[in-house]
């Protein structure tokens, strides 16, 4: 059984996937192409929601019939009207019950026979986002998604037994490449983390930028003798709380930029889905190279998930003394800080820091 959100107390010490504070945040729940005129069930923070298209527009409701709590996603839609699978109550796209078959034609419908929607539902950079309650942090933007010089490559949505907080931590983390990613890009990476600066913005986000030398083995200019093998790469990580991440990599000598957007859906206490999209301006419409880049990124993510799925406690520690930190970890310390502040802001009067 899943937890109902009200059973779960927010914690000042660790952030779980079903922390009530996360109800006041945007989360990815689907790709737009998954949402059709028929109901789709998605899980978020331990709670099911039903999504479908009515008049082409995506609508969402708690996946629970007000009559006997049957999942509405078991039902069917006909001309934008959703019919519950159990006793056939019919609901319009605003969530109002328009017919109770057991009462016969023209009967009065009880006012409480209506569906509850989320506070926020939005489509942005190829993902449907939902905020169960009034969001306190904005939906982060990906400027490259609207830039015609960039092409998008969507990874398959991955499911994992994982903590959303720990996955965000892993995406930001700079010291694991030669160890976790030895089978993909990590083999030639230096273990020492270069100096970097963390810049906190006032919209519940922060950015980390640094430049480092790397061997650009994919650059055709190296083989042609135009450029040296050792080149410079500029990395800019941005986290928008709670779990929206963007990494932009600019190749200084060879030119070109790669962007990875990584969006985590905390489904339940022990499961997440990962929505990942690549945006690249260096592939000149070559579908095969994009498919290869997507496959490579899936292989990289599977290396990360092997570690993330092994954790016993699926929570992100928020207390500074719960773990040992070094100066190489300032980026992931900032994650703990921004999430602690978000949790405190989302649960006023809780005494949370
Ligand atoms: S439970 Fe939905 S109509 Fe009865
Ligand atoms: Fe990684």
TL;DR?
With 353 residues, this protein is of the alpha+beta class. The chain contains 5 helices and 20 strands.
Give the overall silhouette. globular
* CATH architecture classification of the largest domain: Alpha-Beta Complex
The domain count comes to 2
Largest sheet: 8 strands, antiparallel
Layout of helices and strands:
Blueprint lengths: L13 E3 L10 E4 L9 E5 L2 E8 L2 E6 L13 E3 L2 E3 L6 E2 L5 E3 L20 E5 L2 E5 L19 E4 L3 E3 L3 H9 L4 H4 L16 E4 L4 E11 L4 H4 L6 E11 L3 E8 L5 E12 L2 E10 L6 H22 L6 E3 L12 H17 L7
Antiparallel strand pairs: 1-20, 2-11, 3-4, 4-5, 6-7, 7-8, 8-9, 10-11, 12-19, 13-19, 14-15, 15-16, 16-17, 17-18, 18-19
This protein binds FE2/S2 (inorganic) cluster (FES) and fe (ii) ion (FE2).
Fe (ii) ion binds next to loops.
Q: Would you mind describing this structure in some detail?
A:
This protein is an alpha+beta fold. The protein has 2 domains: 29-124, 3-layer Sandwich (Rieske Iron-sulfur Protein); 141-346, Naphthalene 1,2-dioxygenase Alpha Subunit, Chain A, domain 1 (Alpha-Beta Complex), CATH 3.90.380. It is 16% helix and 32% strand. The chain is built from 5 helices and 20 strands. The protein has helices at residues 164-172, 177-180, 220-223, 287-308, 330-346; strands at 14-16, 27-30, 40-44, 47-54, 57-62, 76-78, 81-83, 90-91, 97-99, 120-124, 127-131, 151-154, 158-160, 197-200, 205-215, 230-240, 244-251, 257-268, 271-280, 315-317. The strands form 5 sheets. Strands 12, 13, 14, 15, 16, 17, 18 and 19 form an 8-stranded antiparallel sheet that branches. A 4-stranded antiparallel sheet has the order 6-7-8-9, with no helix packed on it. A hairpin with a 2-residue loop joins strand 3 (40-44) and strand 4. It starts with 13 loop residues before the first strand and ends in a 7-residue tail after the last helix. 34% of the residues are buried. Mean pLDDT is 92; it is low at 1-6. Residues 65, 67-68, 70, 84, 86-87, 89 line the site of FE2/S2 (inorganic) cluster.
């Amino acid at each position: 059984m899943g937890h109902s959100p009200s059973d779960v107390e927010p914690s000042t010490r660790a952030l779980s996937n079903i922390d009530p504070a996360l109800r006041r945040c945007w989360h990815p729940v689907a790709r737009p192409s998954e949402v059709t005129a028929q109901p789709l069930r998605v899980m978020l923070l331990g709670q099911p929601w039903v999504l479908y298209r009515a008049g082409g527009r995506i609508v969402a409701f708690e996946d629970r019939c007000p009559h006997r709590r049957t999942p509405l996603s078991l039902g069917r839609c006909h001309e934008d009207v959703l019919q519950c699978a159990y006793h056939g109550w019919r609901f319009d796209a605003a969530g109002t019950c328009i017919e109770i078959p057991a009462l016969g034609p023209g009967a009065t419908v009880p006012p409480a026979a209506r569906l509850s929607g989320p506070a926020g539902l939005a489509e942005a950079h190829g993902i449907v986002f939902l905020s169960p309650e009034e969001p306190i942090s904005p939906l982060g933007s990906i400027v490259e998604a609207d830039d015609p010089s960039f092409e998008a490559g969507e990874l398959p949505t991955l499911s994992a037994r994982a903590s959303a907080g720990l996955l965000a931590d892993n995406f930001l983390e700079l010291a694991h490449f030669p160890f976790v990613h030895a089978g993909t890009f990590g083999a030639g990476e230096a273990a020492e983390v270069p100096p970097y600066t963390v810049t906190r913005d006032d919209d519940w986000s922060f950015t980390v930028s640094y430049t480092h030398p790397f061997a650009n083995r994919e650059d055709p200019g190296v083989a042609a003798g135009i450029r040296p093998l050792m080149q410079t790469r500029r990395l800019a990580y941005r986290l928008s709380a709670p779990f929206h991440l963007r990494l932009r990599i600019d190749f200084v000598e060879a030119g070109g930029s790669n962007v990875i957007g990584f969006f985590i859906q905390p489904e339940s206490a022990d499961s997440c889905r990962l929505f990942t999209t690549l945006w690249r301006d260096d592939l000149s419409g070559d579908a095969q190279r994009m498919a290869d880049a997507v496959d490579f990124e899936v292989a990289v993510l599977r290396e990360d998930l092997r570690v993330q799925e092994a954790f016993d406690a699926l929570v992100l520690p928020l207390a500074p003394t719960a773990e040992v930190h070094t100066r190489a970890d300032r980026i992931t310390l900032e994650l703990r800080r921004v999430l602690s502040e978000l949790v405190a802001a989302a649960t006023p009067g809780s005494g949370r820091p």
